[in-house]
Amino acid sequence: MLKIATAQLWVHDQEEALAFYTRKVGMEVRSDVTLPEMGGFRWLTVGPAGQEDVAIVLMAIPGPPVLDADTQAQVRELTAKGAAGTVFLTTEDCDAAYAELSGRGVEFNEKPTDQPYGRDCGFRDPSGNNIRLTQLREM
After folding, report:
1. b vs e for 71-93, b when ≥16 Cβ sit within 10 Å of the residue's Cβ?
2. Cα Rg of the chain, angstroms
3. CA 12, 14, 17: angle at the middle one, nearest 5?
4. What pTM was estimated for this model as a whole?
5. Is residue 31 a contact partner of residue 44, using CB atoms and an 8 Å limit?
6. pLDDT tens sequence across 39-63
């Protein structure tokens, strides 16, 4: 099975996303770099504590200046319609993770349920991205 090590999420406001992922979800900042050669584009990456191989890049809409105007317009249109990314975060205990994050103020749109692949639950971040906490079954 493949494991995704890095995911990119489009966010409306990087500061709001950063606060949400660090304060409510409990992630840590991996990198926060502004690239002047790309028009001041900010490369902001967060990830779960203790899982150095997993990172989420919080990409500001409409994205880096390297995207052409048509692509930027498409990204704006899709995100305005609610199109968003989905990130799967693995957890050893879905129910415990759900309880912990709920206690921090994360509002879940799906409570933990059994799935064919394991147990998971989901929430949306402030920009509407789907986040799944997944406890995989041993295969």
Report:
1. eeeebeeebeeeebbebbbbbee
2. 16
3. 85
4. 0.76
5. yes
6. 788 889 999 888 888 888 898 876 6
